[in-house]
Description:
Layout: H1 3-10, H2 51-60, H3 69-78, H4 85-95, H5 98-111, H6 117-132, H7 138-151, H8 158-170, H9 174-183, H10 191-203, H11 207-219, H12 231-242, H13 250-262, H14 269-281, H15 285-297, H16 304-316, H17 320-332, H18 339-351, H19 355-366, H20 379-391, H21 395-407, H22 415-427, H23 431-444, H24 450-462, H25 466-478, H26 485-497, H27 501-513, H28 520-532, H29 536-548, H30 555-567, H31 571-583, H32 590-602, H33 606-618, H34 625-637, H35 641-653, H36 661-673, H37 677-689, H38 696-708, H39 712-724, H40 731-743, H41 747-754, H42 760-763
Helix pairs in contact: 1-31, 2-3, 2-4, 4-6, 5-6, 6-8, 8-9, 8-10, 10-11, 12-14, 14-15, 14-16, 15-16, 16-17, 16-18, 18-19, 18-20, 20-21, 20-22, 21-22, 22-23, 22-24, 23-24, 24-25, 24-26, 26-27, 26-28, 27-28, 28-29, 28-30, 30-31, 30-32, 32-33, 32-34, 33-34, 34-35, 34-36, 35-36, 36-37, 36-38, ...
Amino acid sequence: MSLFRSLHSLKPLLNPAVDLSPFLRCFSTDHEPEPAAEPEPGPSHQPHNDPIVTQALDLLQAPENSWDPAELNRLLFSNSPTTVPTHFSKITLGLGASGKALKFLDFVQSHSPQKDAPAFLSHTFQSIVKLASREPGWEKALLELYKMSKQRDIPLTINALTLLVSFFGRAGMVDEAVSVFDDIDRNARDRHLYELFVGMLFRYGRFESALKVLDEMLELHSRFAASDIPRKIFFSALLRRLQGDGGGHEDEIDGIFVKLLELGVFPDSIALLNIIKKLCRNGEIGRAWDLLLRVIQSGGPVEAAPCNVILVELGKRLEFNRMRELMIKMKEISIQPDVVTLGILINSLCKSRRVDDALEVFERICTMHDDGFSWEPDAVIYNCLIDGLCKVGRLDEAAELLRKMTLQDGCMPNVITYNCLIDGYCKCCEIDKAFQLFDQMSEEGVQPNVVTVNTLVDGMCKFGRVNSAVEFLKEMKVRGLSPNVRTYTSLIKAFCNANNFEKAMELFQEISRSGCSPDSIAYYTLISGLCTAGRMDDASSVATELKAAGFSLDAVCYNNLIGGFCRKNKLEEAYEMVKEMESSGVKPDAVTYNCWLSYNAKTGNLTTANKLMRLMIEQGLVPTVVSYGALIHGYCLENNVEEAMKIFREMNSVSKIPPNTVIYNILIECLCRNDEVDSACSLMDDMMEKGVRPNTTTFNALFRGLRQTNCLKKAFEVMDRMHEHACKPDYVTMEILMEWLSAVGEVGKLKSFVQGYEVAAFTA
């Protein structure tokens, strides 16, 4: 059952009155494998100064019905030892047109001596194919020629067959090309034909057929050297299959890959890089690792680039042992790490906050010049280390690294370097040091960017210097640095936190006037601030603008609105929000349920609150400390301490949610209010045993209860415990104790209690 339908059914019960990349530069361009080029048909060979060719062409210049068969027969066949098959190729090409050449083929077939006919016909037909391929409508003509050769039993040369495969492939007549290839005896197929045919099959998506042909080549490896196998086409095919084209099982693909390696057929650097990248992008890091090791173990050439890809993925998974293993393998086979390799290693260590390890690698490499290896860190490496040091709060070391970087020739700090340090200082509330670096940027000629501005504005806003942030932004505008939506969002949030909603709304309107548009985060920030302040009409208005701008409310935003309406007793509006939330496909979460549960508990509708808790569990949501706290608070408001304690015990025994200070305080205050001070003190003991830290509210509740029962001795013990926990008394503490201890003549105990605390506020 949805929350909306549940609330609808519970509506009568509701009270009617009441949210390693900077180091992958060398991988920025994908090198896609290119298909093998098809051979262009041979040029029109002009006949040489061969007497037989010249005389034959002279005789054939006459109209076809005027040819002198006897003279041709004498010239071409009477001197058969002198006439060779290449003469027929040259004569056919010299005729210039396939139609005339076909008449010559008829003559050759009817007049050739039986023993010479196959060779003469083959060469004649080969040249006819060349002529036909240059004429309009050549696709159909070649198909008819091929059919005719089969009908008339004309043997075709391997060159003629290769031409037919090439031309049919170029015309997209794949089935015809396959038919021609199948007619060629396996022992006659050469490397060029295989490469041509396989390339065509891959281009037209016939992956299964292509791999079968490649298997055939591997079976005939005794006829082919490793260098004869078209490795570029083959590894391109594997890559396409990894990309999902043409299917293929993992074991099948890996098996063919390994078979090639065993024959000494290795992928080139680009093919290997692309295969490893594809596997890593598919999340198959283990498979990529295994294939790379196979290439290394087989003695294939491996460069740093594919190793770098795997190092990046291992770094993301924090698998430092495997990173180390790969680095050792690289050293064993003399793969020289490049700046990217070292950057990936340092970046991975910094990202996992192992900054000391990263610095150790950095120092070792900077001083390592053996084996002809020398390396100078670049700005990217320095930036990575500086950012890593800033993120763990080691700002002095980061600043020292900046000085070291500045002294290094050819490696000047850039805007990213300064932004990392400025961000570090801002997060540590050292805004003045951040501005010193900002001034240093200008002195060094490094221009700040919008990230610099946003970092400083956000830092000032978070630490209460909102007006300074506004003035700084005005100054940046004068210098030509335009703010973006993130700049405004930081300011809007700060003004909402300071309850200056007029300024927050003004800045929100200024976003569009400044040339940029509000994003969903800007809308969410303003809506959240307005809901927290109870300005629900304004929040609803901004939510309407958000939807009109093409954005959707998320669960947090809906929850803010629902919670705000519940706090303002606007149940119908909150109810409509839940309805809209579910209809827009946003599933209510624990926070949504807690909003309704808290409202009903506070307004005394505990039956409804308990039903909501059960519904929450039925929906697969885990009640939070807020859920239990709301119920406990509701029963305490009703002075039903017994039921409140029952839920508290259930929370301890059944759920995995430990009670927090707020829940303990609610119960202790309720017990004291009902004169169950001993139980309240026991609960405080339980609180401390479980490591939940009491606060001033806890002690104040106990002091009230002890004063009501006049347990002075116990009060002194509680005062000592308050000292032990370094918990400062507030004006409520002093009001309770001053009135009570003065009345019983224990002012000295009170003076001793406040010694060491700032008491000016108490006196006032």
